[in-house]
Every structure is written in structure tokens, then in C-alpha cells.
Amino acid sequence: AIIMVIFKQPDANVIEVVDGIQAMLPELDRWLPAGIRVHTLRDRSETIRASVAEVEHTLLITVALVILVVALFLRRWSAVLAAAISVPLSLLGTLCVMWLLGYSLDNLSLMALTISVGFVVDDAIVMIVNMTRMREQGMGPMEAAIEGARRIGFTVVSITLSLIAVFIPLLFMPGIVGRLFREFSVTLAIAVAISGVISLTVTPMVAARLAREVERPPGWFGRGFERGMDWLIRWYLASLAVVLRWRRLGVLFTISLVGVTVWLYIIVPKDFFPTQDTGLIGGFAQGAADTSFQTMTEVEARVAAILMADPAVASVGGSVGGGGGAGASSARFFISLKPLAERPGVNAEQVINRLRPQLSRIAGAQVFLRGIQDINVGGRQSNASYQYVLLAPDLDELQSWSETLVRRLRELPELADVSSDQQRAGLVSRLVIDRDAIARLGISVQAGNQALNNAFAQRQVSVIYRSRNQYRVVLEVEPRLTEDPTQIGGLFVTGRNGAQVPLSAVARMERGSAPLTITHQGQFPASTITFNLAPGVSLGQASAAIEQAQRDIQMPGTVRGEFAGNARVFQSFQTGQSVLILAALVSIYLVLGMLYESYIHPLTIISTLPTAGIGCLVALLVTNTPFTVIALIGVILLMGIVKKNAIMMVDFALEHEREGGEPGEQAILAACRERFRPILMTTMAALFGAIPLALAGGVGSELRQPLGIAIIGGLLLSQLLTLYTTPVVYLSLEKLAGGQRAKLQRAPSTV
């Protein structure tokens, strides 16, 4: 068989490329001889299509759940429709802008749209709840819409702009992570901006036009629901009054949350990108350096038989040799798994783990398997998913320490499939020519080279043409003469006067050993050590174990080690996380500072963020989910979601004071009472928007689940704590600011 691997251009769409190839195959079959058949061995687009379909399904479920939450709280079809209409309008507007920007619908952009559903309805909820309050004060529908929009407009603008500010650092993330999530961030920012405009324009218009002048009295469900809400608000205000009596303790508790967040971040397992089940596995078999092509072919057949016997495997393709440092003593495998529906509960990693013991019993070769991932950054083509590189100016020293480190790493329980690309046991046969003998017999060195070339180079010497085909004539010796290097002595070269002289008369064979390959990196000899992760081990834990092992063997300063490929990107991602989160905090503070024209109130709003971080990290620990790039995105999104609670409280308290109400504690208590319902509604909407992601199954769910888990955990804890910590921090900072203002007023002035 001939295996043809097709790669798309960097700017091409994989679905379009595959569709184009599939359309060409029937035409290609018409031109091929009858005995030749073209078969698709591996189609990467199948899992991509399935993954996109799963995300689209998740998006529809999310829309339904969010609208259900709105209906549960509002219970009037006019209000529900006014809030629900913001979802399709925002999504449609976002898709139009994405089309203008040249974006495509993929896993990340669809995931951004799914998350945005919980965001876009929040502004509409805040607007409608405020209009409802105006109606309860005796206003008509149109008057309530205008007055409600006027009063709540600043709150909506603050929520929208501060949420967009969260995404600004994501736009400037460097490297592959930045390129991945730039489109994700832009999509979310567009959706939030459009929803803000819709909530200030379309939502009050629709609510006013559809509302009745006199609303019907609520039914039995509505009356029961309202009684429950009234009881919940009374209980909350009573418990808040107790907390406010212990205000200093509440401030200390809020400050301690920062330390708890840092501690949880230190202990949570960390990884670069969630391990995906793409339905594809790559395999590599490495034999001894002196393994012949024929022997390796037999090994390849045994490995393929074991692979095909697994019930989750759909097809296996393999090739022996094919170039590279290993040459004929290696084999590669292309393994396609059955669709997830045909292997329920079994992912690619589980298939690999159950195949390892069987493959380890094959004599004559070591077999490595790794799941094919969508994201692979840099590094060399290797046997495993992750790489660690040693560099040294001296080759012998490098090889010695490489072998020592490999032996040490194979003892670590965190790693699997440890190997090195340094193979010093390569066998070499050198043909040493007797210069005096060839000169005496009139034989040139070129004649000897020509004889070897004719015998072993499989040189094309002619072409035989027929009416239907043409055949290349390849020159080679009998196969028996290629089984042993000593057979070379039986070749003849032409001497003086055309005499045929055997090579054994003028040359001798010497055997030795040499490295099969010598790789370089940064102009230094390099040894690449590859490894996979043991089941249940994160990349962060494995990286720490490797660095400790390097310290244990006490390598000299002339030998330097560093991670490569995905492992190296993970290291840089680790160092850049704190900077990214700090940049998001600064962006939020600057935007809120400009909106409120205060340096105190933004601090009150930002004080809600540690609760979200704690909830997110606890949820990841409980579900045994590593902290990855996707989880970090969840943390940043939480920073935008959670602060909305504080914005609604602070904005109402300030408005209450401006309108002549009592300042301080009475103002914030009024804000807590009036804003409790919209806070609960917006949190529930965002929560139900994330539930389908956390519970997602099917292809590509590995990408969506960490985001949903992070958001749900952060929302649950922050909803509970920020209702108490925000009033405490607000009053404490107001007291501090009031003291500073009093000092300035008492200070004498000189004219």
C-alpha cells in the first residue's frame, strides 16, 4: 500500500479541503487501473464536524435554559419575550460582525457564543426588573420604560464596559495561546457590546409595547413564588444586619480570601491544554539498531494485529522505515478509533493504557502510543506527547548524561513511555580499501564506488514502454547478497585489461558502532527526551518531577536542560498567568474609575473577585480537573460576571444618596433589598448558561467542560459571599473616604 498524507495550507479551512478531496476521489478512481483502490484511512474532519455539531446542540440547550430562568422569575409573557428577544438579536448581530471580520464558526467561537447567552440576557433582566419596579410605583408601561431606562442606563453601561475591559488582556496574550483566544475574546466582547445596546433600546421598547396597562393578578404559582422570594429577601436582610454589626471581622474575612485563593492556586494540578479525544492515535515502534527491514516488517504486522484486535479501533495503517534517524529499524502507525457512540465510556487515553501491556510483550521492538491533539506547538516529531531537551558542547558528555537522565526518568511514577532520540548502538560496516592492491591491479576507487552503487542503490537504468503502461528497470543484486555485509566481498570490479577482481582481494570489512543521528539545537548537540503522562498526572506535576530528577543526578553546568514543544509553552504560560490576571484587574479598575470618577468604589467592586477565584479552584479540585488555559479563561470570565453584583449594589446606593436618601448603611441596605432579585436572576442565567458546558459529552467535550466547571464553581460561591462582603467593604471604604474628606475640610487654607 501507499499511504498519502495530505496537509492543508495554513489559511485553508479543513472542512472545505476534505470535501474537495472527497469530491475528487470518484473521478480519480476512473483513471486508476482495475487492481488499484483508493481508501480513506484517516479523516480528521469527522471529529471536527461532530465536535461543532455538539457545540451547536449545547448552544441551543443553553438558550432554552436561560429563557426558562427568565420565565421563572418574570412570569409575564411580555417581560419574558422582551428579555428573550435580546438573545437571538445579540447572537445574530455577533455573527454578522464575525462575518465582516472574516471569522469562522469553530469550537472556540461557538463556545464563546454559548457563554455569551448568559451574558446578553443579563442587561435585559436588569432593565426589565427596574421597569417592573417603576410599574409597581404606579407608572404606565411607556413611562416606566423611559424612566427605568434613564435610571438603570448608567448601571448597564458600567456592566457592559467593565465586562469588555476583562477581555482586553486576552487580546494581547502572546504566542499560540494569544492567537487561539483572540477570536474567542473578540466574539464575546462583540456579543456583550451588542447586548448592552439592545437592552437600552429594544428591550424597553418591546416591554412597553407588549405590556398591559393593568397587569393581571398573579396565579397560584406566582403568589407562592413571590412569598418565597419575600421570605428569602427578609432572611437575607436579617443575616446581613448581623454581618454588618461585625464589620471589621467581615473586612478581615474578605482580605483573607485573597490568601485562600493564592493557596488554592498553588495546590491545584496544572496543565497546558485539556487532553482531547480526537479519535486518532499515533504509534511508533523502535527496534534495535541492527534490526533488518524484513524483521521490522514482521514486527509491524504483529503490532498491527494487536491494535486491530481492540474493540475500539476502526482502522490501522502502518509503514516501516521511511527515512529519519531510525531508518529500517522503525515503524509508524496511524490508528483511527470508532466514533464515540460505538465506544461509549472509552476515550483515546483509556485505549492507549489498555494496549500498552500487550504491546510491551512484543519481542524485538519498543512500541509507543500517543493521542493526536489539535494543539501541538513546536518541538520535534517524536514518540510521545512531551519533550525535554539536553544541550552540551561535547557530544560524548551529552550522550552519557542523556542516558543517565533517561534511566532516572523511567523510575518516576508520573511519567510513561520515556525514550531518547540518542541511539549509540548503531552498527557500522566500513569498507577499508587496500590502496597498494588497487594500484597494482589497475582498479580505481571510482570503480569500487560504481560497483557498490549498482548493487545496492536500486538505480533505475532504463524504462520499458508498452501500449498501456511503462515499467522502470531497476538494477540490484540477488536478495541473498544483501543479508550479510560479508557478501560484499563477492562483488567484482573491473581491473586492468578488463580483468574481473573480487572486492575481497582489494578491501576488507571492519565493523564498529556509531550514533544513528546527531541532532543540534541552537548550534549545540542536543538530545531530545520524550515522555507521556501517567494516568491521572498533570503536566505541572510531571514537569516538577523532571526538574527534581535533574537536580538529583547533579548534572554538570556544561549540560543544560529545557522543555520543548507543548511543555515549553506550558512553562511560559505558567509565568504569564499572574500578569494576565493583574492586567485584567487593572483594566477593570481603570474603566470603573473613569465611570464612577472615584478610586474608592472600583475597589469595592473588585473586592468581589477573590470569591469567584476560590469557587472556581475548589470546583476544579473536587472534579479532579487540571487548571488549564481553558480554566484560566473561565476565571477571567468570572471576573466579568461576578463584579456585576457589586456594580448593581454600589450604583443603587449612590443613586439613593444622590436622591436625598440616607447615606451609608441605610443606602447599601436599600440597594441590597432592591437589587437582590436582579442579582439572583442574572447569576442564575449565567449559571444555567454554563451548565450545558460542564455536563457536555460527545466529541470535543474535553475543551468545554473545564470552562463550565470553572464558571459554575465561581458563581455558586461568589453568589453566596458577595451578597455579604460587598456591603461590608462598601461601608468600610466609605468610612475611610469620609475621614479623609473631613481632614481636608478641616485643614486651613492660605490665600
Descriptive account of the structure:
The structure is a single chain. The protein has 751 residues and is an alpha+beta fold. It has three domains: 46-273 and 570-738, Up-down Bundle (Multidrug efflux transporter AcrB transmembrane fold), CATH 1.20.1640.10; 278-372, Multidrug efflux transporter AcrB pore domain (Alpha-Beta Plaits); 426-514, Multidrug efflux transporter AcrB TolC docking domain, DN and DC subdomains. Helices cover 60% and strands 13% of the residues. The chain is built from 21 helices and 15 strands. Strands 5, 6, 13, 14 and 15 form a five-stranded antiparallel sheet that branches. A hairpin with a 5-residue loop joins strand 10 (492-494) and strand 11 (500-502). Helix 2 runs parallel beside helix 5 and helix 3 runs antiparallel to helix 5 (107-136). The model has no long low-confidence stretch (mean pLDDT 82).
